[in-house]
Amino acid sequence: MSTERMPHPAVLIPEAMEALTAVNRAVTGVGVDGRLLALSHLRASQINGCGPCVAGGAHQARRHGASTEQVHAVAAWRETPWFSAEERAALALTEAVTRLADRPDPVPDRLWDVAATHFDQTELAALLLAIANTNAVNRLNAPTRQQAGSW
What residues of the chain score a pLDDT lower than 50? Predict the structure, then answer.
């Protein structure tokens, strides 16, 4: 197990923590289902290898009503029956936005169009901000080797 390299950057710069928290607060205020946001957070964090966010995302997903099957199988959501069409659209968007450099057209029209059938523009904005914020936190945690459960 690696040890933490330094305290979390947003703890060292409290204004940054306030800003990250403010984005999350704004996103949750839009009314997108908390379970869906937690599953999105969990999936992006899995992709990015962020231990604290994987642990936190699993906890939040369960707290918001995700089934044990959903939490355990979110990395294989395409191959399971446990996700709604709306959740699948959000998870596909989450993966695409998290892996922007993996293809020439990071978020193809067909993927976007499916998401747009399930979410209005404000909800899409909230989902994109949530994904971006998750990726930002993952990119702070991973290089500083933050440990799950450490804060």
Answer: none
Given a contact cutoff of 8 angstroms between Cβ atoms, the answer to whether 84 and 74 are in contact is no
Alpha-carbon torsion, ordered 69, 73, 79, 81, to 10 deg: 20
- 23 falls within a domain: no
Report how far residue 120's alpha carbon sits from residue 103's, in angstroms, rounded to the nearest whole number.
26
Residue whose C-alpha is closest to residue 140's, from 27, 35, 17: 17
* 2 domain-assigned: no
DSSP codes joined into one string, 51-72: HHHHHHHHHHHHHTT--HHHHH
- Kindly report the CATH number assigned to the domain that includes residue 41: 1.20.1290.10
Q: Domain limits at 95?
A: 32-138
Per-residue pLDDT of 68-78, as tens digits, reads 999 999 999 99
Per-residue exposure over 77-93, b if at least 16 CB sit within 10 Å of its own CB, e if not? beeeebbeebbbbbbbb
Alpha helices, DSSP H, located in the chain: 9-12, 14-28, 34-48, 51-63, 68-73, 85-98, 109-118, 121-141
